[in-house]
């Protein structure tokens, strides 16, 4: 927010015209309604009758739906920022809440109904209602996780072939996070595909809706539960004839209906999915195939965006020689010449033509700790960390979506993502284990076509990443679309910008945006927003259910839980669904070594620097290590530096850091450079060279925002690079910080 806004009491017809963008007649009518809302705020939620709080006034404006999606964003800015003009920014103490739960709304949420059913028994006379008793109920879940999970898992469509002996076994002290659901046997993909009574899923329930890019005027496509199951089982049969049980099989393609079918089929048949994002360069694809020891890969011939074709199969070919099954991006036939060992999707499916029942497959049942998916998270050096998801991981993912995104029967859940990122599997399982409908757009989410799909598909829960929201707002491509059926938004991947979130929430009369922050290794978010608490843009109101953590000072000592502070997060080690091993790295070294104990319990590393506000809310301040978050992708500084060091003969050494803009938003990549003595290359030239090298060798979506040439880097006595000093140089240089 660059403009300075005065008090809401100073907003008159003139300001509504000049700043808010309304014509005179509209401005006069709006001003009259605004005064009524302010007077309503004066009567207050507490009935005080005078001196309304900022919250009272905004609550009344929101309740009256005074601000409409069709109003110019400048009007939304004028009113919101004027209401909270006397509050400090989110990054300091007081939080400007934009959404407040009502008791009626709270009792209709999944978690609210759950608390009403179990709260009186678990908390006794201390229980009052879902809003008043939320913090107490959450504390109980942290102290008694086995009680919470014994009840919460019944809310999901989990069908055990053999039930667990108990919820949590902590007798083996060598297992840091305990053993969850020991003895349980199931197939988590089968749980997604069977009709059940709770949550209610019938054979003819619509479980997937989708639309192809460019088909805006055509009806939305849909799949029923039975149709999905038939397609998945056909693919499972084809897989069984081609691979051996336990083989790792990669998926490198957009998250289409076909990709979802393939994912479920791999798991149903007892194989392991290897998740690879479709944006990766050949080198990154090769690394993931090598680390996972994949025996095959599903991919597309091209990725089609805006009518243009972008090669994908050729990148897979350049990466590895393992067998590829190639799906056509358009039509029924692939548009490229395949290698001898590769198969087209059509030929692959025809391999089951001889079966009498190709659409039936008997699931492979496995123990709860069997690996079903290998995902990747960047390390600080070398190869990305290979993180195994077991059958427990989807349960945690779906349960958190049930509790915080409030996924219910009848919801249509859309989140532009990819199966190569953790959000892809989370979205898939959140829908199919909760009985919600998965909404997929086969095209770019940056364009109006995506927004029209959201409108036409009746999306009720829309997930985003902040960079997407910024693009929608800046291009105005979603103007005129009706998103008012959306009952909540969700956001993850990078830091949110307050003004972008203001725009997004206003598209549906200020519905809440559930901020989510977690990790691939956790299978979920450790902090989120909650529909049982007021929400503030860009802030997190609670830890997830059963999740405990402390914020550590520079000496590794936990701050008191009620004290505003800033420090590194230390997660409690009893975390259902979190991984307890890595396939290509030392788990103890990565997540435990160097972390202190708290009340006798070993803490687990996550890496975030967290700020706790006076309200008890949380704001993420960055990473404790040298990993940076670019466009929602956690990336190693060392990886970027290695590429930049080779990008120009003029470079002696580089140092990569990421900086969050002053007004919030995604982190920006800044490269410090020490040049060779004879070089006179300019920063602008280096910026182009670095960006091209990073995009070719690491990720085509990354971009260098600024290059600064220096004589030498600040280092410790042991020659360790002081990135903190470099960040401070950027923050205190007004010329540079203004350009980020």
Percent of residues in β-strands? 15-25%
Distance between the termini: 15 Å
Largest sheet: 9 strands, mixed
CATH superfamily of the largest domain: ANL, N-terminal domain
Q: Let me know the average pLDDT.
A: 92
CATH fold group of the largest domain: Rossmann fold
Tell the overall outline: globular
Please report the total strand number as a whole number.
34
What count of structural domains?
4
What is the CATH C level class of the largest domain, in words?
A: Alpha Beta
Class by alpha and beta content = alpha/beta
What is the radius of gyration computed over CA atoms, rounded to a whole number of angstroms?
A: 26 Å
Which percent bin holds the helix content?
Answer: 25-40%
Poorly predicted parts: 88-92
Number of helices: 24
Q: In what order do the strands lie side by side in the largest sheet?
A: 6-5-18-17-19-20-21-22-24
CATH architecture assignment of the largest domain: 3-Layer(aba) Sandwich
Describe this structure in words.
Helices cover 32% and strands 22% of the residues. It is globular. Helix 6 (110-123) crosses helix 7 (134-143) and helix 10 crosses helix 11 (257-268). The longest helix is centred in the first third of the chain and has 20 residues, at 24-43. The chain contains 24 helices and 34 strands.
Question: What attributes characterize this protein structure?
Answer:
24 helices; 32% helix; 4 domains; globular; alpha/beta; Rossmann fold
List the helices and strands and how they pair.
Blueprint: H1 13-18, H2 24-43, H3 54-63, H4 73-83, E1 97-99, H5 103-108, H6 110-123, H7 134-143, H8 145-152, E2 168-169, E3 179-180, E4 185-186, H9 188-193, E5 206-212, E6 221-224, H10 225-240, E7 248-252, H11 257-268, E8 272-275, H12 282-292, E9 296-300, E10 302-305, E11 308-311, H13 313-319, E12 323-327, E13 343-344, H14 345-350, E14 366-367, E15 371-377, E16 385-390, H15 392-405, E17 412-414, H16 423-432, E18 437-442, H17 448-456, E19 461-464, H18 466-475, E20 488-491, H19 498-506, E21 513-519, E22 524-528, E23 535-536, E24 542-543, E25 549-552, E26 565-572, H20 587-591, E27 597-598, E28 601-612, E29 618-623, E30 627-630, E31 633-636, H21 637-645, E32 651-659, E33 668-675, H22 683-697, E34 704-709, H23 723-731, H24 734-737
Parallel strand pairs: 5-18, 7-8, 7-9, 8-15, 9-12, 12-13, 17-18, 17-19, 19-20, 20-21, 33-34
Antiparallel strand pairs: 1-23, 2-3, 4-14, 5-6, 10-11, 15-16, 21-22, 22-24, 25-26, 26-28, 27-28, 28-29, 30-31, 32-33
